[in-house]
Specification:
With 133 residues, this protein is an all-alpha fold. It is built from 6 helices and no strands. It has helices spanning 2-16, 19-36, 45-63, 68-83, 87-105, 110-131. Helix 1 (2-16) runs antiparallel to helix 2 (19-36), helix 4 (68-83) packs parallel to helix 6 (110-131) and helix 5 runs antiparallel to helix 6. The longest helix is centred in the C-terminal third of the chain and has 22 residues, at 110-131.
Length: 133
Amino acid sequence: EALEYFGSAIYLLQMLGDEMNVLSAKKNIAKIEAKFNGDEIPHDEGNDLAFSQRQYKYWLGKLGEQHPITIRRGELLAHALNCSNQGVAAERLLTKLAATSRQVHGPTHNCTLSATSALKDVKERRGFIESRK
């Protein structure tokens, strides 16, 4: 059922010329097929980082920095940065995202809460790592 959904989504996205979301749908299909086949899903942090950067840049240009979708894509980019040992860059991005969301959407909006939580997690992880040095 999930494969059928993403397959039809790809068709519609291609008709609209939305190549960025076609890439996302194809990536999801590959993950689903790998699970069905019992294959281990390869994790490539560099590829995930590049993909997250493209996604964030795309939505930033299309919707602007204040839109919830852009903020969420920024969070995903920050996660990829953090997983690629770029915690400082992740913290800076999340600080900006949380401040933007708080200013535009308010302190109780789900985007603000999510970005603030992600920022807290990144700071805690960096603090833990630095304490072990």
